[in-house]
Write a structure and sequence with these properties.
22% strand, seven-stranded mixed beta sheet, binds S-adenosylmethionine, Rossmann fold, single chain, alpha/beta, 41% helix
Length: 198
């Protein structure tokens, strides 16, 4: 996808970054869109919507897809909805407002692509319920799995991040040792994992 809409999306991403919004990093964003473009999923789920920019990228990359997002910050939801409208994807995207810890366990239906980009200390807790709504052959794409290099020990973990790091390690172990899953880890930026449910 290289067109005017994509250029505008990149512009909005730069704006968000310039005010310190935590949007997906550039190479990871490209990998996300490439993965979605290849798979052409129909039902997308995103944990951590922020301004809706990764969601828009996914919807533009899979034109028949619908997206459900989860976001805890009401102000960000307003901005995301405005952005969805600007890109003409508002009919294909909805946002659940609230804490992912409460919303994920009550999700119904099946998703064939899940983008996990919410609070880093909770991935392991979310995993069983996310796998329960992921269809066979579906993809779980997770950002920040190497968490600043602390996971894997490339960078010494400051005390205050130990809990998050330990939780992320449990998440990685779970997705790499389960025989029903096939996972690839990408050592780019903050670390990305792509897991297929077999
Ligand atoms: C890294 S940002 C998402 C970036 C977005 N995926 C993108 O690349 O444009 C993480 C988002 O998760 C939201 N968030 C944090 N804790 C959450 C929670 N417990 N439940 C739902 N959303 C949460 C934050 O408000 C933030 O907007």
């Amino acid at each position: 996808m290289k067109n005017d809409l994509y250029e505008r999306l990149l512009e909005l991403r730069e704006q968000a970054k310039s005010v310190g919004e935590p949007v997906l990093r550039d190479k990871s964003f490209e990998l996300l869109l490439k993965t979605v473009e290849k798979k052409q999923p129909l039902k997308l789920l995103e944990i951590g919507v922020n301004r809706g920019l990764s969601g828009i990228g996914m919807l533009l990359s899979s034109p028949k897809a619908t997206l459900a997002g989860i976001e805890i910050d009401e102000d960000k939801i307003k901005i995301a909805k405005g952005n969805y409208a600007e890109f003409g994807v508002e009919e294909r995207a909805k946002i659940f407002y609230g804490d992912a810890s409460e919303i994920i366990p009550v999700l119904t239906g099946e998703y064939d692509f899940i983008f996990l980009d919410g609070p880093k200390g909770h991935y392991y807790e979310y995993l069983p319920n996310l796998l329960a709504v992921l269809s066979k052959g579906g993809i779980l794409f997770a950002d920040n799995v190497l968490f600043r290099g602390y996971v894997g020990g490339k960078v010494k973990t400051p005390h205050k991040f130990n809990t998050t790091k330990n939780s992320m390690e449990r998440f990685l172990k779970a997705i790499t040792t389960d025989n029903n899953l096939k996972t690839q880890i990408y050592e780019i930026e903050d670390g990305v994992s792509i897991t297929e449910k077999l």
